[in-house]
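Ticket #4471: structure export looks truncated?
Reporter: QA, pipeline team
Priority: medium

Steps to reproduce: submit the single chain below to the structure queue and open the exported record.
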Amino acid sequence: MITPQEIKNKTERKYISFLQSLVENKPFEKLVIRGDKSYTKSSLQEFEKEIQQIVSQSKEKKGFGYTLEFQKVKTKSLGVQDLPTSIFFDTEKDFLKFLGKEKEVELFKINVEKIINAFPELKEWIFKNPMKVIANQTEWKSILKVCEYFKQNPKPNLYVRELPIKVHTKFVERNKTVIRELIDLLISEHINIEEKEFEKRFNLKFAEPQIRFKFLDKEISQNFFSGIDDIAIPVSQFEKLNLPVRKVLVVENKTTLYTTLTLPTMDKTIAIFGSGYSVYNLKNVHWFDNLELLYWGDIDVQGFEILSQFRGYFPQTKSVLMDKQTFDKFFEEDKGTSTNISTKLNLTNEEQQLYDILKTNNWRLEQEKIPFDYVNEFFLKMKMSQHF
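Actual output as written to the record:
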């Protein structure tokens, strides 16, 4: 026989459809809970215990909640007994008080009215997302202020915290998820639909990632930057640089960037701090297209995955100091970080073989652990062989 907890679980599953009926202004209809007509056949005592349990939580006993209808049924094992043939909620009050949702629904109704009065076009969104209305139940006054601003100013060209909206300065940042859904609907013709970042999508200013780079050719740093050789500028400015550079060395770690100045002089060359997967920020640097590009990362699975990522932007990229000889010479039994990537990577045969070894054993050799003299000798030989 159905238990009070099972009745509660089934009732809770009807809550969302109830909320949707409120959005559509439908009157409450008798809400039936399907029960289990089986019962314990072992003894009359067990049967009566089951009946007592469900009656104890019913409207008859508590003054609210579900109503039970009984019917006399002749059973094979226990003779003629009163069995519950129907479980239902007569009124909205019974339903909500049983679930403990009276105050929540009262506020839901107020917020639904508030949202639809401000933006009738959001009614369908409310119908599809009643629990999101509830999840943000204390914030709707401010959320609607933000929506109203974007409706009137679809291309603000301001930073989020500059927006002249009478809400907390961090409010938009803290509530981006729901605000994004609403603004997508309200100003669909003005959004940058291909952009996923909030600021880019809704025509806001944003703090750009910066590209940090070092000149390994003193003449270029002197002629263009008054001798300054360590620079960080926003991505959009880096994309517009016009320098007499022929080679670019991208290094994964910041410490390695510092050591690049100890390398043999490299004509018309710059070194860039790739910052791991942040090499993504370089994907639109089109002046790289015809340059010689070198990538130097950790000898671990992530290092090769980042190399593959960067090579996806610039196919001419070659790896340096990421070979098995270097790994075997300096590996110190360090463990790496496992990977979930299973797609084919953009690696050479030799790189792929080493990647497979690293992945299987979860090994790592960080580039900082390769001695300076070995690194310098490597680049000196490269320069002497006219590859640099």
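Status: closed, not a bug. The export was complete when the record was re-opened. Leaving a note from the reviewer for reference: The radius of gyration is 34 Å.
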